[in-house]
Write a structure and sequence with these properties.
33% of the residues are buried. It is built from 7 helices and 7 strands, in the order αββαβαβαβαβαβα. By secondary structure, it is of the alpha/beta class. It has a single domain, classed as Glycerol-3-phosphate (1)-acyltransferase (3-Layer(aba) Sandwich), CATH 3.40.1130.10. The longest helix has 21 residues. The mean pLDDT is 85. Helix 4 packs across helix 5.
Length: 185
Amino acid sequence: MLFLMNGKMKTVNKEKLPQKAPFVVVCTHKSWIDVVCLGIALYPIPIHFMAKKELFSNPLIKNLLTKLNAFPVDRSNPGPSVLKTPLQLLKKKQVVGIFPSGTRNSEEKALKNGAIHIASRGSVPIIPAVYVGPHTIKDLLGRKRRFIILGDPIYVPKMTKDKEVVIEKTNEVISKVFKELKSNV
């Protein structure tokens, strides 16, 4: 459908993806379009997306999300179980997709730390990705180009006593890479 409405999407730096899963891919998030485009960009590698549990309350949307490999996360009450599903997926050599802004938002938001915890505990790299393109149906119909730009893998050390420092520094790196990737288009 996106191809018919908007033409072919361009994936930049696909060679930066690890040759094999598992890994965590983090992406900017401003609309439903970026979720679909990230899935297209990594094809044929399936992505298992974290999604807020409220989306799973509607049976039709729940069915669609399940078919798209999404799994629910309770953002209002995140506990150890939030890590359980993604870590199990990583052990099965799967890719976990996370939108660290935590919500679709047109303004820059502080990044959440879940991807960093998951990558550290799973001993896998974080692959940063930025979506650049239309965010509305109107823009899609205007045939504005769509890009997913991938960055170099970010390796998160195992967290010990310096956990807060690791989180802060890794969040700074991810934010910096997001800005750099956006400026490359």
